[in-house]
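Ticket #4471: structure export looks truncated?
Reporter: QA, pipeline team
Priority: medium

Steps to reproduce: submit the single chain below to the structure queue and open the exported record.
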Amino acid sequence: QVQLEESGGGLVQAGGSLRLSCAASGNIIRVNAMGWYRQAPGKQRELVAAITSGGTNNYAESVKGRFAISRNNAKNTVYLQMNSLKPEDTAIYYCNANIWATAVGWHDYWGQGTQVTVSS
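Actual output as written to the record:
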């Protein structure tokens, strides 16, 4: 069984910063791409940032220059540093990882979500 555990969400004023973390655990053989998605009320879930096992990353246009994704392969953990936060960044943020697990093979896993609220 593989689990993704997120932490770091919360309430912050516009212009502030937050750092999200997501750790994968369980019968993991290998972790491929990891990323963060978000879903605001009444909107579809969207990709925020993703990073490959080799460190190549990509970002949504709306967060470029403000957010930074990184990972620690030894800990199967991905981070999202969010700076200069705006009210429109308010959403539930979900961690996603493509993982090869024992007896399962490759599969996409999701965290339970963490709320980020940015006040104006």
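Status: closed, not a bug. The export was complete when the record was re-opened. Leaving a note from the reviewer for reference: The mean pLDDT is 97.
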